[in-house]
């Protein structure tokens, strides 16, 4: 009985030892698996492109044409045919004036007419006598000169009179709306008097102010966007002031509105204009740029490491930033930002090449492992 127990115990020990050997053979290498610790990054070379920045401003709609109507003669207002707020057409009669000098000019014209007729008749009387030799050449020449002078004097007097008559009727120089009326019936006016102000209705414009920076990047003919109550209108810059407006501290500018339907003079509108621009410049993604004590830098991929590269940055929008110096066209800029990146940090390229290399290494190592296990099993 004791011998049977001992055999059972010995058999159990053999089984345990055998099981341990089998477990070790099956489990193989009990070392911890290795994980990649290098950060994976994406890179791209700098591009060449344009960056345009816009800003919103406030402007005031006004007529593109405005005329202050003044008389060309002095006299009494005999007739007024308009009120403030009226819409008038170009050439429409606004008022009539009784000229102070019209009567005088009329008398001068009549006198000149008589003198011209008299001189002409005298020349006609002397002409046959001169032909017959009864009048000297000198006398006949004097008659010709007198007739010519009298005719010119009459033409001058008539021109002055006709102009005076024309000036007694004041007409609208442009079509539009009467902004203000400056005369009443029987008022006495002179060439310095203002009869009315007309705001042209055919074309509207927006007057606005810009800073020096915006002014330097703006040019006549440049397009602007105008917005009012949810509606947008296209316009173009027509005027840029060369001096600062002392009351606003800005440069005055104007933009014509191509289609101003729905806009009225005096309305406040929003304008979108170019604030800054950089054309045909080197650019990188804005997220690739960081700052160290105010100095811009990027990380460039070089031989498996991230190299901190200082750059001179320019303007930027939501996607790209201008790079003025520090990079070349072949620089491989790391665009996938990570807090793990430091100067000299080893990195992996996210382009499939690293994964293929690792797969090939694992496949090459697999036969060696299998051969090693076979040798152990043979032992």
Beta-strand residue percentage = 35-45%
Q: What does the main sheet amount to?
A: 6 strands, antiparallel, barrel
CATH architecture of the domain at 66-197, please? Beta Barrel
User: How does the helix and strand content classify structurally?
Assistant: alpha+beta
Principal-axes geometry comes out as elongated
Instruction: Enter the CATH topology name of the domain at 66-197.
Output: OB fold (Dihydrolipoamide Acetyltransferase, E2P)
Strand count: 24
Question: Which runs of at least 5 residues are low in confidence (pLDDT < 50)?
Answer: 1-6, 21-26, 353-379
CATH class of the domain at 66-197: Mainly Beta
The CATH superfamily of the domain at 66-197 is RNA polymerase II/Efflux pump adaptor protein, barrel-sandwich hybrid domain
The run of helices and strands is HEEEEEEEHHEEEEEHEEEEEEEEEEEEH
Helix content: 25-40%
Describe this structure in words.
Helices cover 31% and strands 37% of the residues. The chain has helices spanning 2-27, 102-132, 137-167, 212-216, 353-378; strands spanning 40-41, 43-44, 47-63, 66-69, 75-80, 87-88, 93-99, 169-171, 176-181, 188-189, 196-200, 204-210, 223-228, 231-244, 251-257, 268-285, 290-292, 295-302, 305-310, 312-316, 320-325, 333-334, 345-346, 348-349. Among the domains are: 54-65 and 198-279, Efflux pump adaptor protein, beta barrel domain (Elongation Factor Tu (Ef-tu), domain 3, Beta Barrel), CATH 2.40.30.170; 66-197, OB fold (Dihydrolipoamide Acetyltransferase, E2P), CATH 2.40.50. 20% of the residues are buried. It is built from 5 helices and 24 strands. The longest helix has 31 residues, at 102-132. The chain is of the alpha+beta class and 379 residues long.
């Amino acid at each position: 009985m004791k011998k049977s127990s001992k055999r059972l115990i010995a058999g159990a020990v053999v089984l345990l030892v055998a099981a341990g050997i089998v477990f070790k053979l099956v489990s193989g290498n009990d070392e911890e698996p290795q994980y990649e610790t290098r950060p994976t990054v994406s890179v791209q070379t700098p591009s060449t492109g344009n960056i345009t920045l816009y800003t919103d401003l406030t402007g005031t709609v006004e007529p593109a044409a405005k005329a202050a109507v003044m008389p060309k003669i002095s006299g009494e207002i005999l007739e007024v045919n308009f009120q403030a707020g009226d819409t008038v057409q170009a050439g429409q009669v606004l008022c009539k004036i009784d000229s102070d000098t019209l009567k005088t000019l009329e008398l001068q014209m009549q006198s000149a007419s008589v003198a011209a007729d008299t001189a002409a008749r005298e020349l006609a009387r002397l002409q046959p006598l001169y032909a017959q030799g009864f009048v000297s050449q000198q006398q006949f020449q004097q008659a010709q000169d007198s007739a010519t002078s009298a005719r010119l004097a009459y033409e001058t007097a008539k021109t002055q009179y006709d102009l005076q008559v024309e000036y007694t009727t004041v007409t609208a120089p442009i079509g539009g709306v009467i902004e203000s009326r400056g005369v009443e019936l029987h008022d006495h006016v002179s060439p310095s008097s203002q009869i009315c102000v007309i705001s042209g209705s055919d074309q509207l414009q927006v007057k606005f102010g810009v800073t020096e920076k915006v002014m330097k990047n703006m040019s006549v003919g440049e397009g602007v966007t105008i917005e009012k109550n949810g509606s947008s209108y296209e316009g173009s810059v027509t005027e840029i002031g060369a001096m600062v407006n002392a009351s606003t501290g800005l440069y005055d500018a104007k933009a014509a509105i191509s289609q101003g339907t729905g806009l009225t003079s005096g309305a406040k509108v929003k304008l979108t204009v170019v604030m800054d621009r950089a054309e045909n410049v080197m650019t990188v993604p804005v997220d690739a740029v960081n700052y160290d004590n105010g100095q811009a830098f990027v990380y460039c991929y070089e031989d498996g490491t991230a190299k901190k590269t200082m750059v001179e940055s320019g303007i930027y929008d939501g996607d790209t930033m201008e790079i003025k110096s520090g990079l070349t066209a072949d620089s491989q800029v790391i665009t996938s930002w990570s807090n793990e990146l430091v100067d000299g940090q080893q990195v992996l390229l996210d382009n499939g090449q690293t994964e293929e290399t690792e797969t090939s290494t694992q496949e090459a190592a697999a036969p060696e492992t299998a051969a090693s296990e076979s040798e152990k099993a043979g032992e």
